[in-house]
Amino acid sequence: xxxxxxxxxxxxxxxxxxxxxxxxxxxxxxxxxxxxxxxxxxxxxxxxxxxxxxxxxxxxxxxxxxxxxxxxxxxxxxxxxxxxxxxxxxxxxxxxxxxxxxxxxxxxxxxxxxxxxxxxxxxxxxxxxxxxxxxxxxxxxxxxxxxxxxxxxxxxxxxxxxxxxxxxxxxxxxxxxxxxxxxxxxxxxxxxxxxxxxxxxxxxxxxxxxxxxxxxxxxxxxxxxxxxxxxxxxxxxxxxxxxxxxxxxxxxxxxxxxxxxxxxxxxxxxxxxxxxxxxxxxxxxxxxxxxxxxxxxxxxxxxxxxxxxxxxxxxxxxxxxxxxxxxxxxxxxxxxxxxxxxxxxxxxxxxxxxxxxxxxxxxxxxxxxxxxxxxxxxxxxxxxxxxxxxxxxxxxxxxxxxxxxxxxxxxxxxxxxxxxxxxxxxxxxxxxxxxxxxxxxxxxxxxxxxxxxxxxxxxxxxxxxxxxxxxxxxxxxxxxxxxxxxxxxxxxxxxxxxxxxxxxxxxxxxxxxxxxxxxxxxxxxxxxxxxxxxxxxxxxxxxxxxxxxxxxxxxxxxxxxxxxxxxxxxxxxxxxxxxxxxxxxxxxxxxxxxxxxxxxxxxxxxxxxxxxxxxxxxxxxxxxxxxxxxxxxxxxxxxxxxxxxxxxxxxxxxxxxxxxxxxxxxxxxxxxxxxxxxxxxxxxxxxxxxxxxxxxxxxxxxxxxxxxxxxxxxxxxxx
Length: 719
Prior knowledge:
Helix content is 3%, strand content 54%. The chain has helices at residues 15-31, 72-78, and strands at 66-70, 93-95, 106-108, 111-112, 119-121, 124-126, 137-144, 158-164, 172-180, 184-195, 201-212, 221-235, 238-251, 285-299, 304-324, 341-369, 372-388, 393-401, 419-435, 440-457, 464-482, 485-496, 517-529, 533-551, 561-582, 585-599, 617-626, 633-642, 645-646, 654-655, 658-671, 674-683, 691-693, 696-697, 700-701, 704-705, 710-718.
């Protein structure tokens, strides 16, 4: 898709490689099957620490932050295999241009995440402009709100951190297979073993392959994963961890539906299986990823620990699409024609490469200063990012139709320029959690970032190069009302850095760095935890400066355009989460009420407008209940509700709100010495027809429908 670039590694992962790994590990797992079935024990997530929190082993329930943790079991029960699926589990998360077969885009608290800067893997920055595989992830952590203390530059919505599976304490072999409507089949193995006289060596291997037959027509694809994680407990207090991951995803993507002239098309009459990317020359989008890391953790004494963590990411992407964009005959380039036609382009951006390296050196420990107890951490993060691409095809090939019936010729000529980017940064961070009394704790953090960024077009035009130094503070205060109830308040800053496009319209300012724009967040809340319920409620406000262009802004008139900060995007919200537990069942619930508005603009008509593609009322419910008459059987049901979303920036059109119901069952049974876990599910039980989201992407209004009713089933075998 235009202007988005990704990458695929030199070592492509093929089905034969994964199949061989599955066969090898299956034989090994059967030979080493234990006398007792593997038992999965999970505690309350509120009592678990989160890497993305930034305060070490402090449980989520004790942090003056809002963090959601998603375990593999919860994702499996919900049938989720992509980052975009998280929007069904947390009311604060929303879709932000989620096309089938493509990159996942999220918004948190109404702000779009920047896939270049808002993603982490085991706490280190990665580029999210690719398909991120969840098959070897122990959990997905989502920080909500300003992330300046954890990230040098990032969108203010929050951070997503992927935690890699590591060797388990006990040997395990888990085989799994799944099938869903229209023929999608996937198989995987999760194998872990310890070696050495005292088990000082650990190895874990995850391998998976899938043949994809989605509900969307003409979008068959496949994906493969091979991941290996090892560890060596050199001596008490010294741990060396190494891991690598290879994954590949190949599948045609989908251009969205759009407005028909000034009219919002009827979602009930639109077939959500329709694929506008169905030309005979259509090629899949291919993502090939390589990730590797090496981590050394050294305990210096009972109170202090040091860590060195190095990670490398290599991405390669071939991005291809029969791209539907605009209506030249009606002079509208942000929507389709009123008669259901649109302009079709042959878009191809191949051999995009994105390389990232990150090194984190940190020290963490506890000490006392008089009556005050400190939990201190200090770190240095050095990172480098480089993207390379060749010229791309972006050629008009004819007129398409929204029923997918149009046939047009291909034109893969490389007529459009791409952008090459480099970034180097050094980030110094300091955090301290100070216990002032048995009930009161103060939290403080500061991150100082030094960055250098440059870019140039593939033909050598429009070069930019600039450096900036940025600092982002964060403060918090928490008070334990009783052992189960905590009140907190926090305040923090985030920062984003951009450059004026190096185009003639901007005159002498072209290519110059814009002043760094700082977002600010304040938050207050309550958190509680007990055997029967964990809950929290909080109120937040985030203010983010907005860049805008002023003037005629014509490339034929040098200096006719000025880009400057103009007002803010202010998001005020109320969030509530609860995990209710009773004998044999429970209910997970989350809700968000959001007021997102543009304010303080010099253009009076802009003030008070809502952002595009942001729902202001969201609710998520997931209920579970055991069936006493059949031990091992648990029924579950889910509800996803989202309010209306604006389609156009002037708020003249909106898509209606919608509600989706899901249902499923999970059955655990012993089979000899093995444990079997069966899962079945139906997503969109009532086959609801609605527009799910309305992203305004690439200066164009798009509409994506809810997926139709989908059946799925899977089997997990613990040997």
